[in-house]
Amino acid sequence: MSSSYPIGQAGTPWGVAEIAAWRSAQVKQRSYNNEVISKIDQLPESCVIEQYGELNYAEHYPLLAIKSAIWQRNRPTILITGGVHGYETSGVQGALCFAREHISDYQQHVNIIITPCVSPWGYEHIQRWNPEAIDPNRSFYQDSPVPESAQLMAYIQAQDEPIWFHIDLHETTDSDEQEFRPALAAKQGKPYEADSIPDGFYLVADSAKPTLEFQRAIIDSVAKVTHIAPSDDQGLIIGEKVVQPGVILYPMAKLGLCGSLSDCQFHATTEVYPDSPKATPSQCNKAQVAAILGGLNYVLAQR
Question: Is the pLDDT of residue 220 over 70?
Fold first, then answer.
């Protein structure tokens, strides 16, 4: 089934005028200052805050990183990213929850970097794209023109210690089918083909480095908090083969995904479904924290 989108003409990719029309239709719906920065300001002394960049759109947005106060050279470093797609609330709030409740428990063992809201304009406007109608999570590549992606890449590349573990926190909402995928099809000048959203939590691993035992540890941890998405009748999740329960593979670097941000040994991208009748937003935040803890406990056991 296909449907039309109110911006652009069917079969014609968007140009400058269509992008401007799309941008003018976006409405600020929540506050980055109130829901993210204020929570960062209240973090315990086990957290150190660094500004790694800024965005200057109609408003100014500081880009903030949270680091463990205890930082040692020649020690494994873990990276937690949230809000690469700004509208995906549990990624942002789950990252902040981990910083608030757990960073002090782990900073004796690893260095920790958390960038809880990579796309603050997207967070405020509940949007997948940035104001130029570009997806930051397809823009992690050399000389990227997308500031959300480029500034995070530069910050991570400037760290003294290489990243050992990276978990990128995402979610899928009903708005993917109601708004974001139809908008993408219109932007590309293609017909929109409706799809379904997996009901539950799943992981996207890097096809170049799947680390399936690591993925299983995360799934086992999250299953204590919320349900794991089943595969469909063809053994697929979002059109990709399920390689073990709740896990599919993507070529992270080829697609310019945040998962290719570093050449880490262990990587996972989470997906939760807050619109599920079997989950709540709070449960999804907890699932993101459980994913971090499951992965972190696994990698620490490998040392």
Answer: yes
Task: Locate 257 and state its tokens.
Answer: 């995904």
- pLDDT per position as a tens digit, 24-47: 999 999 999 999 999 999 999 999
| Domains contained in the chain, number | 1
The answer to the question of residue 11 being in a domain is: no
Residue 194 lies in a domain: yes
CB half-sphere exposure, 128, CA atoms < 13 A: 18
What is the spatial distance between Cα 300 and Cα 165, in angstroms, rounded to a whole number? 10
CA dihedral 121, 125, 130, 134 (to 10 degrees): 170
Hey, is 248 helix, strand or coil?
A: strand
Spatial distance between the Cα atoms of 169 and 83, rounded to a whole number of angstroms: 7
For the chain, the average pLDDT equals 96
Average pLDDT over residues 150-155: 98
How many C-alpha atoms does 131 have within 13 Å on its Cβ side? 15
Q: Where are the alpha helices (DSSP H) in the chain?
A: 16-24, 32, 38-41, 89-106, 120-125, 147-157, 175, 181-188, 212-222, 252-255, 281-301
Strand ranges across the sheet with 47-56: 47-56, 60-68, 111-115, 77-82, 163-169, 266-271, 202-206, 247-250
Per-residue pLDDT at 4: 81
Task: Dihedral sign for Cα 271, 273, 278, 279, please.
Answer: positive
With respect to residue 8, please indicate whether it lies within any of the assigned structural domains.
no
